[in-house]
Write a structure and sequence with these properties.
By secondary structure, the chain is α/β, with parallel strands linked by helices. The chain has a domain of 110 residues: Methylthiotransferase, N-terminal domain (Rossmann fold, 3-Layer(aba) Sandwich), CATH 3.40.50.12160. 32% of the residues lie in helices and 11% in strands. The longest helix has 16 residues. About 20% of the residues have low confidence.
Length: 219
């Protein structure tokens, strides 16, 4: 099947999008930048501030239109908005077929219908789709108060995880943690009140370095 991706929000979210693209390609699916011709459209959402939530809903509704006007048969919504408003999104946007939270990244293959027959893989970078405004928005509730400490990550990726870069060849992101702590606090070791498992990368520093070396080799 042909898969199209809209990735919104921060670079951490973009890494998740790149991993989902990598897993989809590994499973034999074809990637496309043409939403009109995509069999499956994936929207990886952001819910950081109100404008980000609205942008995410805009993109979901925009991609949902291709179920009427294009080849799209399946609409997948992932990321932070999906994590925080799973039930509301499903109830208010019935065109959504699958909702994947921030810890459900590997479930993208199952959402796509499982492994597909192998296809020719084009060279170069895969650029994700982008979104534009859509006039009608469902009303989302006020988000709940977040805990001071992050919960443990439920999905851990490493240097060997399939990943397709969506950035230009001269740079790429390394997702070192899934936590509210700043990078400065982490490298200075100021995370005593956060369980060690809160590090997103397996093996922490060693895995970060291995990932960076692997990314460098692809430049």
């Amino acid at each position: 099947m042909k898969i199209g991706m809209v990735s919104l929000g921060c670079p951490k979210n973009l890494v998740d999008s790149e991993v989902m693209l990598g897993l989809a390609q590994q499973a034999g699916h074809e990637l496309t930048r043409d939403p009109q011709g995509a069999d499956v459209l994936v929207v990886n959402t952001c819910a950081f501030i109100d404008k980000a939530k609205q942008e995410s809903v805009d993109a979901i509704l925009e991609m949902a239109e291709f179920k009427k006007t294009g080849a799209c048969k399946t609409l997948v919504v992932a990321g932070c908005l999906a994590e925080r408003y799973r039930d509301e999104l499903k109830a208010q946007i019935p065109e959504i077929d699958h909702i994947l939270g921030t810890g459900d990244v590997p479930a993208i293959v199952e959402a796509l219908g499982g492994p597909a027959a192998p296809v020719a893989r084009p060279g170069g970078l895969i650029q994700v789709l982008r979104s534009s405004a859509f006039p009608t928005l469902p009303t989302l509730p006020t988000p709940p108060t977040l805990p001071i400490l992050p919960t443990l990550p439920t999905y851990l990726y490493d240097a060997d995880t399939p990943r397709l870069l969506a950035t230009p060849r001269h740079y790429a992101y390394v997702k070192i943690a899934d936590t509210v702590r700043s990078f400065k606090e982490i490298i200075e070791g100021k995370y005593d009140d956060i369980p060690e498992q809160a590090f997103y990368m397996k093996g922490a520093i060693e895995e970060v370095l291995a990932t960076a070396e692997k990314l460098k080799a692809t430049a």
